[in-house]
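Record Diamine N-acetyltransferase, 159 aa.
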Amino acid sequence: MEPEDLDMLYHIENDRSLWNVSATNVPYSRYALHNYIADAKNDIYIDGQVRLIIENEQQETVGVIDLVDFDPKHQRAEMGIIIMKAFRRQGYAQAAIEMLTDYSRNMLHLKQIYAVVDVDNEVSHHCLLSIGFTEGAILKEWIFCDGRYKDARVMQLFI
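=>
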């Protein structure tokens, strides 16, 4: 991430409609996000995560993809992705996940990437299946959203 990504990151992190697909539950200040960008070493072995900006051919930022909960012993990490509304359903998620998969396999030597997806999120579920993810466990009442608990599905990609 670059300092120029601050406004986009501020928008994504403070979009309450996305909080149900992330661990965010409080708004972030520009100052806190500025420090996050400045302090990140961009080394998954140091930070335990890596966050990458997704751009299209016109160098427009279309979203963010990250690996979190990196576990070098078990060679796995959790993937998260957000595509901004104006760019959804145009193939950017699939392309970004495929690039992240190549990076994870060839540079990080991971055995698997997994994602936790709300069982009602059919778009993400279908996208991940089309890339080769398989369905794992159903996590009962895993996501608290809109005053109620919802089930989530673990999706795994063995690479």
